[in-house]
Design goal:
Blueprint lengths: L4 E3 L1 H5 L1 H6 L4 E3 L6 H11 L9 E3 L29 E2 L1 E2 L10 H4 L5 E2 L2 H13 L4 E2 L1 E2 L16 H12 L13 E2 L15 H10 L4 E7 L3 H6 L6 H13 L3 E8 L6 H17 L2 E6 L16 H14 L3 E2 L1 H17 L10
Parallel strand pairs: 1-2, 4-8, 7-9, 10-11, 11-12, 12-13
Antiparallel strand pairs: 2-3, 5-6
Amino acid sequence: KIFLIAGGPHPSGDPAGTLQMGFDAVFIGEGEKSFPLFLKAMNKGEDISGIRGVAFQGTTKFTKAEPVEINDYPPFSERWKLFGPIEITRGCPFGCSFCETPFLLNREYRHRSIENIIYFSNIMKKNNLLAFRAITPNALSYGSNKAGEIRLDLIENLLKELSKLYSSNLVEDASIGIYFGSFPSEIRPEYITEEALWLIKKYCINRTIIIGAQFGSTRMLNLYRRGHSVEDVKRAVKLILKAGFKAEVDFLFFAPDETLQDVKDTVALIKELKKMGAYINTHSFLPLAGTPLYGKINNDSEYLKYLQSELEKLGYLYGNWKRQYKISIRLADYFKNNKSITSLIQQ
């Protein structure tokens, strides 16, 4: 018999629905502890039902795995040559309604130590991987203990140590150097300062900074607990461009509570930022499992008609909002058909 297991964001947010698909076990939350315990127990033929953070067929009470100390676990597998960006921060205190991170990984920052980051960066360099990229909900939150705190001293210490490994300030080569505040991560707009940009320019190779605006509507920013203002976005773009970087700004469409006026406010901000010289990344809201907005969707036809018309006038924009919108409709349909099995995960 094949024993099917599932883990990750969606199974963690909807373990009951995932079990109903036919999986035998679902790992809820962080799997660094629970997965090895599960494998050892399975290998020895021991009882697996008591492992925290693992649900099985017949489970009625779903419990997340305990948060781990990320310094105790490698960010990649050198043995199997499975490398990727290094996770330097886990968790987020802001609690944006549409984001899985604070609900699945908790609302407290956990940072990988500088020593740990350097240790694994050396391993990557030994394997001829000469670009450092970070996974973090907000690059400028590194080292901080609470929302809004910026520890430029710790960020500079990190970048300074990394610069000893990478010649990012000497070699203009896209394959060599430190990337910070760019893909696959970004920076919250209210964290952008002249001092922070100066540090990035001094130590890093990237000349693009990505910020998450999400909405141009003050009402939506407040409703979805973004924690920043429209003015924060404008100020951040001005500072980024002034420092000589390319500014990329993420926007989100089709949020469930978004009105036609809200999207008009967002489009107005997009137009203003494009005139300033910013690049725009467009995305559609996804009703992700584990969030307060799971299963909800905005399918207002007037909204869609307006948005298509206005975005076409703006010319080329980055992003796949049309494809994501189709996915969001499919997710909402999934939720509608399985709403009786949606679970509340016990903290």
